Amino acid sequence: MSKVIFDISMSLDGFVTASDIRPDEPMGVGGQRLHAWAMGGDERGREILARGAAGIGAVIAGRRTYDTSLPWWGADGPTGPARLPLLVVTHRVPEKVPDGGVYRFVTDGIDSALRQARQAAGGKDVTVMGGADVARQFIRADLIDEIQIHLVPVLFGGGTRLFEHLGDGHIRLEPAEVVESSEATHLRYRVIKRSP
């Protein structure tokens, strides 16, 4: 069966966006620093990105991520020319959606989003890419098989924290891989499933 992988870049102090998010700064002021490892001259980072992308069949994101990122993604979505389906978890379908876009809007929760993403992925992995709220919902529901964090050497001091409000129980992780590059340390953990 395909895996459900949560994949995100994070500052050393635990933020997945910087402060002051606005339409022209969807990652907060200076927040694009979190993606430099994937966009710049970091060869190992590009290898990590390409290896991860090869196994993905569908992507899940939250509505806030969709709204703030759409101007940059356009109709192709976050996977660009690969045009993988992006399932957006939302309470309401937006009024304006790009013609010919890869977007599917899921209004009946994360279980439905995952079911639809698995079907769309055709046996490949499903990536949950953001934002923090949707990721926390998937983690709390024990629906994530792996967590991949691209830990960027920057301290934001504020923004959107990732690992808050996960409940009182511990979530055990098993280290699977650590890759150091010039722009980030790439951490992959297997989630140890909780007993029913």
At a glance:
With 196 residues, the chain is α/β, with parallel strands linked by helices. The chain has helices spanning 36-39, 43-54, 63-73, 110-121, 132-140, and strands at 4-11, 15-17, 56-62, 86-89, 103-106, 125-130, 146-152, 160-161, 173-180, 185-191. Residues 3-186 form the Bacterial bifunctional deaminase-reductase C-terminal domain.
Protein model, in words:
The protein has 196 residues and is of the alpha/beta class. The chain has a single domain, classed as Dihydrofolate Reductase, subunit A, CATH 3.40.430. The chain is built from five helices and ten strands, in the order ββααβαββαβαββββ. The chain has helices at residues 36-39, 43-54, 63-73, 110-121, 132-140, and strands spanning 4-11, 15-17, 56-62, 86-89, 103-106, 125-130, 146-152, 160-161, 173-180, 185-191. The strands form two sheets. Strands 5-4-3-6-1-7-10-9 form an eight-stranded mixed beta sheet, sandwiched between helices. A two-stranded antiparallel ribbon has the order 2-8. Strand 3, helix 3 (63-73) and strand 4 (86-89) form a beta-alpha-beta unit. The longest helix is centred in the first third of the chain and has 12 residues, at 43-54.
